[in-house]
Amino acid sequence: FFFKQKTAYEMLRSLVGSEMCIRDRRRVHGEISDWESCQQKMCQVIISNDENIEDCQEYVQVDFANAFIGGGVLSYGCVQEEIRFVISPEMVVSVLLTEKLENSEALMITGAEQFSRYKGYGTNFVFDGDHQDKIDMDLY
């Protein structure tokens, strides 16, 4: 379905950053010990266990399950991070471009389009049809 929706030109544009962007590859926010003594207040954080991460479209989606971006998407595993990468295959490019992240580093990907629906989790994960992503592109 990904290849039916995207022409070769569109795929190339998305890989070089015009539509999808691996932005500020690494943002270092100090050592973990600095966070423990930090007095600055955080912005509001909403945590939901009622929805899948990709269903929270108006929010920033955060995944911190693995120091290796994509987790086991190219080898094994089929949980949150791997599922997110499988349904938005453009993000797999970041696996090839990003080495192991340190505890104080983050990687931000914007504009990745979702191409498929699914059911299940882990060993029960199955493809559940094509998905037409109707989300506007990020402003970044």
Q: What features would you describe in this structure?
A:
There is one protein chain. By secondary structure, the protein is α+β, with helices and mostly antiparallel strands. The chain is 22% helix and 11% strand. The chain has 5 helices and 4 strands. Strands 1-2 form a two-stranded antiparallel ribbon. Strands 3-4 form a two-stranded antiparallel ribbon. A hairpin with a 6-residue loop joins β3 (116-119) and β4 (126-130). The longest helix has 8 residues, at 8-15. It starts with a helix and ends in a 10-residue tail after the last strand. Mean pLDDT is 75; it is low at 15-19.
Element order: H for helix, E for strand: HHEHHHEEE
For the biggest sheet, the summary is:
2 strands, antiparallel
What Rg is obtained from the alpha carbons, in whole angstroms?
A: 16 Å
Q: Give helix % range.
A: 10-25%
CA(first)-CA(last) distance:
26 Å
Shape category: globular
Sheet/helix structural class: alpha+beta
Contiguous uncertain segments of 5+ residues: 15-19
- Summed over residues and divided by their number, the pLDDT gives a mean of 75
Strand order of the largest sheet: 1-2
**Share in β-strands:** 5-15%
Q: What's the total count of β strands?
A: 4
Secondary structure tally, helices: 5
